Amino acid sequence: ASVSEPAQKCCTENIQPFLSSILEELMGPVSSGFMEVRSLFDKEVNEIIQDFQKTNDMTRLKENVDQLMTLPFNSVKMEPCYLKVNLLQELLQDLKNRFKVYHIDFVIQRTQNFMQELMENAVYTFEQLFSPSHQADSAKVATTIEKVKLRVLK
C-alpha cells in the first residue's frame, strides 16, 4: 500500500506520456520486417506460377511447392526480413538508457521468431489450400495458385 501510490505517480508522470511515441518508434522496424516476410512469400509464389506457366510440368510444380515449404528455414532468403528488425537495436539502445530496458537481443530475437512463425503459417496454409487442386486441369492450376496466394496474403 505504501509503494502503490508513488509507483503509480512515477508511471503516470515519467513513463505513460512516452508510451505511444515509443510504440510508434518500435513499430516502424517491426512492421517493415513483417512486410518483408509478406513480400518474400508473394515473390516466391509468383516464381512458382511463372515456372509452371513456362513448363506446365506437374511434377516440377510439386517440387517447387515442397521447396516453398522450406522457406521459413532458409536463412539466406529470410535474412532480408530479419535485417529490417535489426534496426530495433539502435532504437532500443536509446530506451535502455532512458528507461532501463534490458534484454534488447531477446526482443529482437523474439520478433524474428514471430516472423519465421508467420512464414511457416503462410506456407503451411498455402499448401493446405492448394493441395486438392493438384489433380485439377493443368490449364487452371496457375489461376488456382494465384487465388490461393491472395487468400493466404489476405
UniProtKB/TrEMBL annotation:
Pfam families in UniProt: Niban2 (PF26086)
Domain Niban 1/2/3: 9-154
Matching InterPro entries: Niban-like, Niban_1/2/3_dom
Family from the record: Belongs to the Niban family.
Record's protein name: NIBAN protein
Gene (name only): Fam129a
